[in-house]
Automatic annotation (TrEMBL):
Protein name: Sec-dependent nitrous-oxide reductase
Gene that this polypeptide is encoded by: nosZ
EC nos: 1.7.2.4
Main subcellular location: periplasm
Gene3D superfamilies, per the entry: Cupredoxins - blue copper proteins, YVTN repeat-like/Quinoprotein amine dehydrogenase
Keywords: Copper, Metal-binding, Oxidoreductase, Periplasm, Signal
Enzyme class per UniProt: oxidoreductase
Signal peptide (UniProt feature, chain positions): 1-24
């Protein structure tokens, strides 16, 4: 038994080194008869993933759109793309970034870099209210409302922060979004210090962003200043680790140049173990100093908020299991995933079992808190849990997912942790994140795993040099993992969240009765427009298949304010409002009112029309914006 496993492991290692990829599927010992029987009962891969016309998927898959600045939504298990939610980038398809409100949210930015979506939680379980996402590039977070799948708030740039990558991790009752900086800069922001002074003059930050329990509104709560350690991935605690959050660092060397080599010198980097409840209490007790309007805690002066934990080597993911006791962290440059026991962490803190101190912050004694180093394979990144005692770790270099058994381990397993690796499946290729529904809750769904691969290398029809990213669906209900489906995604998915579809009932129309927009108009006859010197204001009604008014007259130089109401109370009847030549396209959902302000900066007649096909007479839904030359005297309209 032992020989077989060892042989398999070394074979895999050899194959990986030779080819950069390896397939382990045939190697692990599977209880094959039981597995085959259960997969036979489940039907073929096609049957398991086929969702017939008119039927619906069981789950939503929300996956980050990376540098597209968007969030993609698909159904599971069909993997059919349902919608793209624009967050940090304008989207003419939904009119996002064209009306006044969304334009103001985007500010001067035209893009973002979304890595980690996080669903809101109540009592450690998804509650279906909000989806939070981060912007690695411009230090922001956003809140999407799952009642209408729309971005409702963008918070940021977060003060005193650069590179909001370790984000957005939701606490058990959505008290906070906890975020950490990937980059470090001289503080306060805008201060200059030469990069050569990186280790002494630059700082990173861990932030608690407060979530309003009613509205979901985000605000900056407090921050903890840290050395310039490039915080990477994080997660939040539960159960015994309730009130804690964890981030890895890939640069405790504090290198500022040639990071590939210089940030990979130490065998162990640090993770930050942050007691966010203690941080919150310290701020309440006045133990923080204000920096750019935010209470900032110096962890050297406030013991108990921050501890460092050594983790090998150049770690990336750190993930808390459903019980909250086991924390798995993977070092990209060593073929193991390290499991920490939070109960031992707590005891080590209580007994002050520190192996060192770094700038006044205790470093916990690794040997005392570690449960084991599981030999999962090459290039381990992220770990997810099925709620049945198993963990699944993505292996970037090996292009595989390893399934392994969580502690508690038997003596035999403990003596040889290779025994805990239960299965391995090849993915195509170079997997980044993987996701199991509810893995970060108390009770994961435990049936599907989606592997989000960085490269597809010719597995899809060629569309030129930039190939579609590949996402693969793996059935994890049996002892052995089974690859059942593969789909493309736009660039570039990182993490994802899976939500049971029956957890939410999205609204289908905005009820007219609940509209409290003072600029709404609900019939063509109520539609108006008025002109005062320098300004035209129109309240426009849009209803199949007319705009009222369908002629709006302005003088060149006027500011034009349009409030457009989609009068419809029928689901899926959407109207658009585009003005030819004015780079403007507003999309209005049933019962919604949107406002748009622009300058009538050129003389002429500019047709406007409905951009969203809405009826047989959709093409007739048009009108004119007349922009007259400026008059000498103030004229009244019409
Ligand atoms: S990171 Cu992308 S593969 Cu930004 Cu979560 Cu690990
Ligand atoms: Cu309204 Cu097309």
């Amino acid at each position: 038994m032992k020989m077989k496993t060892s042989y398999c492991a070394s074979l895999t290692l050899l194959a990986s080194l030779l080819t950069g990829t390896a397939f382990f599927a045939g190697c692990s010992d599977s209880g094959s008869s039981a597995t085959q029987a259960s997969s036979q009962n489940k039907g073929s891969a096609a049957e398991r993933t086929y969702v017939a016309p008119g039927e619906k998927d069981e789950y939503y898959l929300f996956y980050s759109g990376g540098h597209s600045g968007q969030v993609f939504v698909a159904g599971l298990p069909s993997m059919r793309h349902l919608i793209t939610i624009p967050v940090f980038a304008p989207s003419p398809g939904t009119g996002y970034g064209f009306d006044d409100e969304s334009r103001e949210m985007l500010g001067d930015f035209t893009w973002g870099d979304v890595h980690h979506p996080g669903l809101s939680k109540t009592d450690g379980m998804y509650d279906g209210r909000w989806l939070f996402v981060n912007d690695n590039a411009n230090n922001r977070v956003a809140r999407i409302d799952l009642r209408d799948f729309k971005t409702k708030q963008i918070l940021g740039p977060i003060p005193n922060s650069s590179g909001n990558h370790g984000s957005s991790f939701v606490t058990e009752n959505s008290e906070y979004l906890l975020v950490g900086t990937r980059f470090s800069v001289p503080l306060p922001m805008g201060r200059f210090a030469p990069v050569e002074d990186y280790a002494d003059e630059f700082n990173g930050m861990v932030s608690g962003l407060k979530v309003d329990p009613e509205s979901g509104d985000l605000s900056v709560g407090w921050q903890i200043i840290t050395p310039p350690f490039n915080w990477d991935l994080g997660s939040t605690g539960k159960g015994p680790s309730s009130g804690w959050a964890f981030w890895t660092s890939y640069n405790t060397e504090m290198a500022h140049t040639k990071l590939e080599a210089n940030a990979s010198q130490r065998d162990r980097d640090y993770a930050a173990f942050v007691n966010w409840r203690a941080a919150e209490a310290a701020v309440k007790d006045g133990k923080a100093d204000m920096l750019d309007g935010v209470p900032v805690i110096d962890p050297a002066k406030v013991p108990g908020v921050l501890y460092y934990v050594p983790i090998g080597k150049s770690p990336h993911g750190i993930d808390v299991d459903p019980s909250g006791r086991w924390i798995a962290a993977s070092g990209k440059l060593q073929p193991t995933t390290t499991v920490f026991d939070f109960e031992k962490v707590q005891a080590a803190i209580d007994n002050k079992e520190f192996q060192a101190e770094f700038r006044g912050v205790p470093v916990l004694n690794y040997d005392v808190i570690v449960e084991g180093e599981v030999p999962v394979g090459l290039g381990p990144l992220h770990t997810q849990y099925d709620g049945k005692g198993n963990a699944y770790t993505s292996l970037y270099i090996e292009s595989a997912v390893a399934k392994w058994k969580l502690p508690p381990w038997t003596d035999a397993e403990k003596a040889n942790l290779e025994f805990t690796v239960l299965d391995k499946i090849g993915v195509h290729y170079n997997i980044g994140h993987l996701v199991i529904g509810g893995s970060d809750t108390r009770a994961p769904y435990g049936d599907w795993l989606v592997a989000m691969n960085k490269l597809s290398k010719g597995r899809h029809l060629s569309v030129g040099p930039s190939q579609p990213e590949s996402s693969q669906l793996i059935d994890i209900t049996g002892r052995k993992m089974e690859m059942v489906y593969e789909s493309f995604t736009d660039p570039e998915p990182h993490f994802a969240q899976i939500l049971k579809a029956d957890m939410i009932q999205p609204i289908e129309v905005y009820p007219k009765a609940e509209s409290n927009n003072p600029n709404a108009v609900w019939s063509l006859s109520d539609a108006t427009y008025t002109r005062e010197p320098g300004k035209v204001t129109a309240k426009v009604a849009a209803v199949r298949s007319q705009f009222g008014p369908d002629k709006i007259t302005a003088e060149v130089g006027d500011t034009v304010v349009l409030h457009i109401t989609n009068v419809e109370q029928t689901t899926d009847i959407i109207h658009g409002f585009a003005i030819s030549g004015y780079d403007l396209n507003v999309i209005i959902d049933p019962g919604e009112t949107k406002s748009v302000t622009f300058k009538a900066d050129k003389v002429g007649v500019f047709p406007f029309y409905c951009t969203n096909f809405c009826s047989a007479l959709h093409q007739e839904m048009q009108g004119y914006l007349e922009v007259k030359p400026a008059s000498v005297t103030t004229a009244s309209v019409d």
